[in-house]
Amino acid sequence: MVPVVIVGAGPVGTTAALLLARWGVPSIVLDALPGRDRVGSKSICQHRDVLDIWAAVGVGEQVAAEGLTWTTARTYHRGTELFSTTFADRGRSPFPPFVNISQARTEELLDAAVAAQPLVDVRWGHRVTAIEQDADGVTVRCGDEELRAEYALLCAGGRCGELRDQLGVGFPGRSFDDRFLIADLRTDLPGWSHERRFFFDPVWNPGRQVLVHPCPDRMFRIDWQVPADYDLAAERESGALDARVRQIIGDRPYELVWTSVYRFHSRCATRFRVGRVLLAGDAAHLYSPFGARGMNSGVADAENAAWKLAWVLRGLAEPELLESYHVERHAAAQENLQVTSATMDFLVPPDADRAAFRADVLARAVTDPAARAQVDSGRLYEPFWYVDSPLTTPDPQRPFRGRPPRGSVPDPGPGVLVPDVPVGSTRLRALARDGFLLIGGSAPGCASLPLEGEVAEVLGARPGEVWVVRPDAYVAAVVPQEQVPAALARAVGGAVDRTRTAVG
């Protein structure tokens, strides 16, 4: 019996497999496709903290090096810039706030890491038709073939409704009538190569929106909001598509590399854990892309699932720990839905009142700074905060102050990702991802780090505190030394006291 079967070999599934292997847990990854689909940019925008997760499996640095770094997001109404957003770093991360790189290239880099990892077995052309479970394990069926596993991770994308139905998991939400035309084109746009630009009601797409993202190799990704009855083939044939492109780039040479038309959805699974099966990525949630919260949040799902599965499979925690996967990641999904749904309601108002509100806000925002705060062009991805998790020990001296301002990050404290800073020849996040880390204290089986210097400064630490950091680099507790055992027990979901083993 294999420890884990992963259904879906996309970035979320392969990330989970690599992270499990890092903890010494073998997995089999099944995908219905015969191989990779290398066409189109798809999910292009990778956040700093996702690059950090990929760094743990040897991929993050290369994704960052090959991707195009951007640090500013600008928003316009017609021809006027309303505001720009830059992105804070509480510490000194080696990674930029965002890089743009095609999903196909990201998958190539993940595949290379998988090929070098003997604990990961990827099987293409294996369409999973059934997932069943009993007290001892999970049975995964691919046609006439059956696989038995202790646990399964469903990362098969948003169209795995049959498998969700078998698990008794609903997928409520809504779909949007307007379509979005997406084009990858290669050209030169001086001054546009390191910024995300969002346009409300530009003269070249009146009444709707356009988003422009720079990508490596002189590529630009352009998203136009288009009517529900938009016909890409007809526009291409008539020459209107060329005219649409030239309204943005002017009279300069370009190569149209890929086009597609999407309808966006906002949906969330009712359960992220059903017994021995966990749901992750698009199988668990679908968001509109204005905020880059899809694949980024899916990779965060993968890390959360991987360390908890590893702790349970290695006898370091009881199976009840897995329920915290649902609690934490479902809460993250609800936050992402709230943020992206608010964006879509502003971009595509669902009724006359909200359409009038949007028109008024945009008109006033040209001259009124207060109105600019109401303009929603997409709040970009940020890691969720597990302040209400059963694994987190609250600290009354560090109350969570709610969703931070656009472009900001929460103050360090329980439930928040620990800021990254250099520590000797390594860095704080890298140390944290080797297991449970105690900063300023000690406990059997845990790595320890002094609470001093830049580490203490970036945390805003007080004398006598011990910072308990989980294997996914989230702060589980800030407590006195005598309370560390209780905080560690809580952080693994119960009374098991063996909280750490070495990687691999």
From TrEMBL:
Residues 405-415 have a biased composition (Low complexity). PANTHER family: BINDING MONOOXYGENASE, PUTATIVE (JCVI)-RELATED, TRK SYSTEM POTASSIUM UPTAKE PROTEIN. Signal peptide: none annotated. Keywords: FAD, Flavoprotein. Residues 392-415 are annotated as: Disordered. GO terms for molecular function: FAD binding; oxidoreductase activity, acting on paired donors, with incorporation or reduction of molecular oxygen, NAD(P)H as one donor, and incorporation of one atom of oxygen. This is 3-(3-hydroxy-phenyl)propionate hydroxylase.
